[in-house]
Amino acid sequence: MILQRGLGQLDATGEYEEGTLRELKESYQKFDAAMQQNMLRIIEQSLAKFPITLQIYIWSSLLAVLRDEKIIPYMGELTADDSLNLWQKVELMNQLQRTIFASE
Asked: Can you tell me the distance from the alpha carbon of 36 to that of 27, in angstroms, rounded to the nearest whole number?
């Protein structure tokens, strides 16, 4: 699966390869809305075992690449996590606002 390959790249290098992100976007766009939502739920379940900061990074990357508003609620859920301090929550909200308003 593309997500697993991307997580492997993230573990190995600390970033995704451009081709992986492009492939993920192309695959995602082929799905209908219901399948996209299902894919996002699978991603959410897969990320649950990772630290909250890594989850934020991955969701932010997905939002930037996929440009799909269906991702925003998943990121919004992260702001409710008690392990984040106030400044981290504010930064996450600022990041969401930048991404949302900078998008087409």
From this structure: 10
* Planar angle of CA 100, 92, 50, nearest 5 degrees: 115
| Alpha carbons 12 and 91: distance in angstroms, whole number | 26
Q: What is the pTM of this model?
A: 0.72
Q: How far apart, in Å, are the Cα atoms of 29 and each of 4, 39, 90?
A: 18, 11, 31
CA distance 59 to 88: 15
Q: CA 9, 45, 63 angle in degrees (round to 5)?
A: 60
Query: pLDDT tens digits for 32-86?
Result: 999 999 989 988 998 888 888 888 888 887 887 888 889 889 888 887 888 888 8
Please give the Cα distance from 95 to 99 (Å, whole number).
Answer: 6
